[in-house]
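Quick bug: KxDL motif-containing protein 1 isoform X1 output formatted oddly.
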Amino acid sequence: MMEESEKESIRAASKEVACQFKTLIDANDLDSLKHLQHIILGRLQDSNAVLSHFNEYSEHCFAEVSSDFSRNTRLLKSMKSDLDYIFQKLRSMKVKIMATYPDAFPDELSREEFDQRPDLEVPQ
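Here's what came back:
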């Protein structure tokens, strides 16, 4: 029972506050706010439509290029493993040549004078 009477008093207080609040706001101002809200709602709906269209377009574009991207990624990984194997063989060949012909490769100081190419094995 107390809950019902408590709810009734809350409702009555709410109605009173609403009535008092209505007297504080001019009807023209309220109409102006409604109009502005409708304008903003229209703009937000337009923006939402544009973004939805863009998302569909992006999804379509991604579907077109994803297989090429995956294939090229696999190709690059394969090329990297091939190059790693080639550089490993070159290093082992260099070690064998150095063992047989110690003067075949110049030391670091004279090598820098002759060879100005960048070292491809060092990350930049």
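Actually, after a second look the formatting is fine. The first helix runs from residue 2 to 24. Closing.
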